[in-house]
Amino acid sequence: MDIKTIKKEVKKQINSAETLKDLDDIFKKYLGKKGKITQILRSLKDLSEKQKKETGKLANEIKKELESAVKEKKYVFQSADWLASKFQDIFDISVPSKKPLVGHLHPITLVRRKVEEIFQQMGFSVVEGPEVETEWYNFDALNIPKDHPARDAWDTLWLKPESQKLLLRTHTSPVQIRYMEKNQPPLRIIVPGRAFRHEATDASHDVQFYQLEGLMVGKDISVANFKAIAKEFFQRFFNKEIKVRLRPGYFPFTEPSFEIDVQCVICGGKGCSTCKQTGWLELWPGGMVHPNVLKAVGYNPKFWQGFAFGMGLDRLVMMKYKINDIRLFYGGDLRFLQQF
Ligand code: PHE
Question: In which domain, by residue range, is 52 found?
Answer without folding.
Answer: 3-87
